[in-house]
Amino acid sequence: MIDVRKVLRSFRFAGQGIVDLFRYENNAKVHLLIAGIVILIGLFLKLSTTEWAVIITQIGIVWAAEAFNTAIEKLCDFVSPGLHPQIKAIKDLSSGAVLILALTAVVVGIIILGGHLLELSHTD
Fold first, then answer.
1. Which residues cross the membrane (predicted)?
2. How buried is 95 (Cβ within 10 angstroms: 0-12 exposed, 13-18 middle, 19+ buried)?
3. Under CATH, to which class is 4-122 assigned?
């Protein structure tokens, strides 16, 4: 039997994690700002359903990666508060993963939004 109260409590904890991510993490705030700009541009360009699905997926992937990166960094700082070369490597790899996904999202955005902007500029 599913314990609905436990499920709801889990959602509440997860929601608090999302709020904390965007409240306290500077890079997450940057990703949020860029996502907002991309969404506004997408609304202006009247993206197709498929294009929206791709754009929203990219935004979600970058936000999730930023959350994982933040969790890994916090765990590393808790386990090893001092400087340690292995902890540095772990944190660098984790932030590198976010960078890979963010750059991929930029390329996807350029392909989708850039194509529409090119079409728009050629209709004038």
1. 30-47, 93-118
2. middle
3. mainly alpha
